[in-house]
Amino acid sequence: MGRRERVYLSVEEIPKYWYNALADLPFQLDPPLNPQTKEIMKPEELSAIFPDPLVEQEVTTERFIKIPEEVLKEYAIFRPSPLIRATNLEEYLETPVKIYYKYEGVSPTGSHKTNTSIPQAYYNKISGIETLVTETGAGQWGSALSYAGLKFGLNIEVYMVKTSFEQKPMRKCLINLFGGKVTPSPSLETNFGKKILDIDKENPGSLGIAISEALEVVFSRNKAKYALGSVLNHVLLHQTIIGLEIKKQFEKINEKPDVIIGCHGGGSNLGGTILPFIPEKLSGKNIKFLACEPKSCPTLTEGEYRYDNGDTAGLTPLMKMYTLGKDFIPPKIHAGGLRYHGSAPIIAKLKHENMLEAVAFTQDETFEVANLFAKLEGIIPAPESSHAITGAIKEALKAKKNKEEKVIVFTLSGHGLLDLTAYS
Ligand SMILES: *Cc1c(COP(=O)(O)O)cnc(C)c1O
């Protein structure tokens, strides 16, 4: 058996700044449009749903954004996360390739989402907000926001996609454990939810519907704002803590990655992983960025690149992205976190500019890989994360065939200990 190589950083080595790729990307993002007027949105308009510091982070082109002390203190509870060499997997594949994974399952709720829920709660708190309303697909975002709300004294209300609510009751427990309130969506608590249920009582829900419900609630309340767990520029910004740590960890072992992989739902763990490597890529280094998504929700591989809403009701700004259409309801796959019709504008643009490649895998093949990985590496991956593992294995086998000595790194976005029903 191979030696277990783990690259740790000390708490003092947690990066003190997030990296803003907008400062370096060789293109401008197409601006978000007002969903009613189709005019370019002004930052002030975003202030209806987000607090000012986050609106500022959404549009700034400053290269490094200082992480507030209060946020660093909370990060230090679970960060830096380990970079682990998948020696057993390498041996199993009999490949000359080195495979590393950045393990985000060490967070309080078991996924990378606390990297952004903590700063989001912090910035809302200092802006005088009392309640955050959000949606959650598989429940990871809801539990991450609930945890952050607890840390900064905010009420958290979560609209959870009904299929996941039924399939993943433990996620609801987790949200409640941290003091958040959960409502299955579509619900009778909003006009939009009622309208959907009038048409189809059995509607399984979708992220788009849940976002619509959450926004309706925000617009009807005082001192309430909305929080989004993926897609937006400021979310990807917060997630760059992942890639920045990976860079430091690779420096420690004098290694550089050739292929960087993440699973893709809305683009936050992928963006957070790859964006800090944009300067290297732009300077001509041959680094491959790879997005892995489910065949049943093939946003980047089969979606259209155009303006679309982030939600079903059409309340969110129109954003230029790869989309399967805002009314797309993905099949009930276990990788609930990857059931989103759209993508982050930054990720979409990278794909469109051929700086990012994308592949799609079936549920069967990713579960086979997840089982193999659990047995070899001793970590049960979230069904979402197993898409990234599948991508890494395919890349490793390709390099083996071509006799290339590559270094592959992927982000293991979360553990699957609350997804064991999916495994069974
Ligand atoms: C939410 C989630 C995802 C997908 O979201 P992204 O924004 O694409 O990162 C992937 N993995 C896990 C474990 C998640 O919780």
Automatic annotation (TrEMBL):
InterPro entries, A to Z: Trp_synth_b-like (IPR006316), Trp_synth_b_CS (IPR006653), Trp_synth_beta/beta-like (IPR023026), TrpB-like_PALP (IPR001926), TrpB-like_PALP_sf (IPR036052)
Catalytic activity: (1S,2R)-1-C-(indol-3-yl)glycerol 3-phosphate + L-serine = D-glyceraldehyde 3-phosphate + L-tryptophan + H2O
Tryptophan synthase beta chain-like PALP domain boundaries: 79-414
GO molecular function, one term: tryptophan synthase activity
GO CC aspect terms: cytoplasm
Pathway: Amino-acid biosynthesis; L-tryptophan biosynthesis; L-tryptophan from chorismate: step 5/5
EC number of the protein: 4.2.1.20
Keyword annotations from UniProtKB, A to Z: Amino-acid biosynthesis, Aromatic amino acid biosynthesis, Lyase, Pyridoxal phosphate, Tryptophan biosynthesis
Modified residues (N6-(pyridoxal phosphate)lysine): 113
Domain of life: Bacteria
Pfam families listed in its UniProt record: PALP
Cofactors, names only: pyridoxal 5'-phosphate
HAMAP family membership: Trp_synth_beta (MF_00133)
Description of how the protein assembles with itself and partners: Tetramer of two alpha and two beta chains.
Function: The beta subunit is responsible for the synthesis of L-tryptophan from indole and L-serine.
NCBIfam families given in the database record: PRK12391.1, trpB_rel
Family according to the record: Belongs to the TrpB family.
Name of the protein in question: Tryptophan synthase beta chain
Gene from which this protein is expressed: trpB
